[in-house]
Amino acid sequence: MADEPTRQLDAETGHAVTELPRAVVRSEWVTALAATHDATLLDVADRVLELRDGEMTGP
Fold first, then answer.
1. Rg of the chain (C-alpha set)
2. Please, are residues 44 and 22 in contact by the beta-carbon 8 Å criterion?
3. What SS3 class is residue 42?
4. 9 is in which domain, residue-wise?
5. What's the domain count of the chain?
6. From CA 25, how far away is CA 45, in angstroms rounded?
7. Which CA distances in Å does 10 have to 1, 14, 15, 30, 58?
8. What is the DSSP letter of 43?
9. How many helices (H) and strands (E) are present in the chain, helices listed first?
């Protein structure tokens, strides 16, 4: 679980931080959960859920 994992990072380091859990998810068949306002993380997500006005939206 990660809360704003790339908030204070430059783009290159932020990319590396997002790739690490993704690699673990793929190799170990586990789930990773990230809460963020950073839309660039959406590109690496398998599934995106959004909390809007107290309601969960998404597939």
1. 12
2. yes
3. helix
4. 2-57
5. 1
6. 11
7. 21, 6, 9, 27, 29
8. G
9. 1, 4
Kindly state the tokens that stand for 16: 């590396």
pLDDT 10s digits, 17-34: 788 888 999 999 999 888
- Contact call for residues 34 and 2 (beta carbons, < 8 A): yes
Average pLDDT, the chain: 84
* Per-residue tokens: 44: 């690496």
The helix/strand/coil state of 16 is helix
> What's the whole-model pTM score?
0.63
Residue 56: HSE in the Cβ half-sphere, 13 Å Cα cutoff: 5
Report the CATH number at residue 7. 3.40.50.300
